[in-house]
Structure formats: C-alpha cells, structure tokens
Amino acid sequence: MVGRDHGIQSGFNCQLDLLCSHRATMEQLHAVLHSYNTLSALEPTWAAWTADLSPFDLAFTYTAVVSSAALFGGSFVYFILDYQPSLRKYKLQPTRLPTLGLYWKCLKLSVLNQVVLHGAVLAGLLYLWGHLATFSASAPLPVPTTILYELVLFVLVEDATFYWVHRALHWKKVYKYVHK
Description:
Blueprint: H1 17-20, H2 26-35, H3 43-50, H4 55-82, H5 100-129, H6 144-169, H7 172-178
Helix pairs in contact: 4-5
InterPro entries: Sterol_Desaturase_Related
Protein name: Fatty acid hydroxylase domain-containing protein
Organism: Aphanomyces astaci (Crayfish plague agent)
C-alpha cells in the first residue's frame, strides 16, 4: 500500500476500512460489529437436523449427547495426559499411577451414572417442565451474545446448585449412604 496515506493507521493491515477510518462514527462501528452477531448461515443446517424431532426429543437427545460428549471427551483428554511421562512431575502423586483396571472401573461407573442418574433426572425435568416451551428449535437462531449470556448464567447456576447439593450429601445422616 505504498503511496496511500493512512495517517495513524499506517503499518496496520486493516481489513475493514470503516473501522480504520478516523471518521467512523459510533453508529457505524456498532452496525459493523452487530452484523457479525448472527448465526443465520447455520439456520439451514439446524433446520435439517431438527426437522423430524419433537421438542421433547430435541431437548432430551441434544442435551444428553452434548453433556455426555463433554464428560467423556474431557475425561479422555485427562486419561491421555495421565500417561505422558513428561507431565508426571506436575501430578500431586507422581509415583502413584492408576491402573487400566481402575480406569475401566471408573468408566463403567461413569457410564452408569450418566445413563441412569442423569438420564432419569433429565427425563423427569423435561416431563415436569418441558411443556413450558422455554426454548425454540425454529429459526431464527439466537445471536451469539445471547448464547454467551445464557451459557455464563447456566454455568453459575449449575455450579451453585452442584455445590449446595454436594454439601447436603455430606450431612451426617446422609453421608454414609452416598459416599463409598
């Protein structure tokens, strides 16, 4: 870009001239940023995926699949990291390595908990409150800022709920029945 005067922005590779212009107003800046806050390109794919699903099936199936993928995917990453000799120095107990038998036992218990406990709770919640139509599977999809806001809110609520339920399970009268 030799020969063009870019003022303060010289030396920067700016793809959006509007944002680099010193004459850009806040309204123009807001309009450009707002244009990226959409998922409209994904709407045809989403419509194809969800065309034959009832709201209950959509909520149950997708929630179960996403939560299971997060649980077992994350666990698999840590399983692999546990067998990296170069990372053992960071372990709290570097000389104590879990056996494959212990991992297998843990996996079976995790699958049982995920299917029986989480599946039953999810099905029960959807049965009780699924008719409230708190979600919509139809287009238009929510904007990314809405998804981010709801994700942060969910993480906070889930973390607080987990803490208080776990604390309640440590009550003397209940502890001996739930912890092994």
